[in-house]
Write a structure and sequence with these properties.
The protein has helices at 30-33, 60-66, 104-116, 122-138, 152-164, 188-202, 222-234, 248-257, 264-269, 288-297, 305-310, 318-321, 341-354, 361-375, 402-408, 414-424, and strands at residues 16-26, 39-50, 53-59, 71-82, 84-90, 141-147, 169-172, 174-175, 208-214, 239-244, 278-282, 300-303, 326-329, 393-396, 430-435, 438-439. It is an alpha/beta fold and 441 residues long. It folds into 2 domains: 2-82 and 384-440, Urease, subunit C, domain 1, CATH 2.30.40.10; 84-375, Alpha-Beta Barrel (TIM Barrel). The strands form 2 sheets. Strands 5, 6, 7, 8, 9, 10, 11, 12 and 13 form a 9-stranded parallel β-sheet that branches. Strands 3-2-1-4-14-15-16 form a 7-stranded mixed β-sheet. Zinc ion binds next to strand 5.
């Protein structure tokens, strides 16, 4: 069943729908291969949706002639892209986004933990999950990989809402058994048992995937990390998500808590939590050994630029890592200051500039779509405009505000037309969103 962003059920999607718009196919990784060899722009393109998938794409004239039976939707000058993919978020922090004045550990204790305590209440969790997906969909994000809270109820609420809307979505129970308040702590056995039960209930159901989720080493004992490592080894097709080296005091704290470990990454590796399906949020203060090991294993780093500036964490080394590491892009809501992947791309651009690397618009778009999809090991299902991919799409209005429109009007090529929206755009630029072929925004 398909619902729109306010939860209203929409009519059944037509058997075939033809979306006519500008299209941009990114067929490879522009960060490694250059945009000239990886991007194909069609100013008068079209995408045929059928059975929740992309059935064809090409020039509009040809596809209209070939599929006269399809319902035709003319999106004018809008740019049709794969829906954005947010590879790291905390949906339960929706209510405390933009909370003032604290750095990571104080921010967790002062704002995050008190809010997360509320998610033992399934009614509250359901209300926030619905609000969260309204916000992400209206920002053009069609897949989120989120942390829940320690409460299984929070994961049930997230998956129930995602399933109701037909979304591809990922989530896990956030495990913590120390350095967190009573009410947000489980223990090693409970973390294992509750994660295993949630995995059995949701993993692979419809478009949902369970993700094994130790919050980060400071809030887990060795025993808990090891229990989750055992679970991870038992279910090798499950992803594992956690945080790594976000702030300097956090890194120093981990060294105190785990004197036997070589470094922060080693606290995970010793517990069996390092593998190619690992997602490591932030990864700012990496040692050379950690960088090499992450590349060797093929684990993904998830860049969360609005969070890194908002909580005052530091600068992710995109220039130094993009050539060698699997990288996804994410809001990290509510440490991140926006639900919008457009705002997130703008921040990624600015952070990379501060590190001496100017990211091309194709690289920003790749990070927000296919890069994140590949980080989540979903690159063969979402994140690309290509035949056979799931029909999760966003249409961007490239002149959504007067400020953007006056800049776009001077554009001499497609990249110059797109870049102002990447830098200055927000939910007003979202002209349409499709989930599994049905329009939801
Ligand atoms: N490190 C551990 N937990 C969190 C969290 O919820 N947000 C961020 N930004 N960093 C974390
Ligand atoms: Zn996070």
């Amino acid at each position: 069943m398909i619902y729109n962003s306010t939860g209203q059920r929409q009519g059944k999607p037509m058997a075939k729908t033809l979306l006519c718009a500008q299209t941009l196919e990114i067929t490879g990784n522009p960060m490694r291969e250059g945009w000239q060899d990886t991007c194909r722009h069609d100013p008068a393109g079209a995408v045929l949706l059928e059975g929740g998938k992309i059935a064809a794409l090409g020039d509009a004239q040809g596809l209209v002639a070939k599929h006269p039976e399809a319902e035709r939707i003319d999106l004018g000058e809008a740019l049709l892209l794969p829906g954005f993919i947010d590879a790291h978020a905390h949906y339960a922090q929706t209510g405390i986004i933009a909370s003032w004045g604290k750095r990571l550990i104080d921010w967790l204790n002062g704002y995050t933990f008190p809010e997360e305590l509320k998610f033992g209440d399934p009614v509250y969790a359901a209300e926030v999950a619905a609000r969260y997906f309204d916000l992400t969909l209206s920002n053009g994000t069609t897949t989120v990989c989120s942390y829940g809270t320690v409460h299984p109820e929070s994961v049930h609420a997230y998956f129930t809402e995602a399933q109701r809307r037909g979304l591809r979505a990922l989530c896990g129970k956030t495990c913590m058994d120390r350095n967190a308040p009573e009410g947000l702590r489980d223990d090693a056995q409970r973390a294992f048992d509750e994660s295993a039960a949630l995995l059995a209930r949701w993993h692979g159901v419809d478009r949902l995937s369970y993700v094994i989720t130790p919050r980060f080493s400071p809030t887990s004992t060795r025993a808990q990390l090891e229990a989750l490592g055992t679970l991870y080894t038992t279910f090798p097709d499950c992803l594992m998500q956690t945080h790594l080296s976000e702030q300097t005091d956090e890194v120093a704290w981990v060294a105190e808590l785990f004197p036997e470990a070589q470094d922060y990454l080693d606290t995970y590796e010793r517990a069996g939590l390092l593998g190619p399906t690992g997602l490591f949020g932030h990864a700012i203060y990496l040692t050379d050994r950690e960088r090499d090991r992450l590349a060797e294993v093929g684990a993904a780093l998830v860049h969360c630029p609005t969070s890194n500036t908002f909580i005052g964490s530091g600068l992710f080394d995109m220039g130094g890592l993009a050539g060698t590491h699997r990288i996804g892009l994410a809001t990290d809501t509510g440490g991140g200051s926006s639900f919008s992947m457009l705002r997130t791309m703008a921040a990624a651009y600015e952070v990379a500039q501060l590190g001496g690397r100017a990211l091309h618009p194709s690289e920003l778009l790749w990070l927000a779509t296919r890069g994140s999809a590949e980080a989540l090991h979903l690159g063969d299902q979402i994140g690309t405009l290509a035949i056979g991919m799931e029909a999760d799409l966003v249409a961007l209005d490239l002149a959504s505000t007067p400020a953007i429109a006056q800049r776009t009007a001077r554009a001499e090529d497609i990249w110059e037309a797109i870049f102002p929206t990447l830098m200055m755009g927000d939910d007003r630029a979202i002209a349409g969103v499709w989930v599994a072929g049905a329009r939801v925004v």
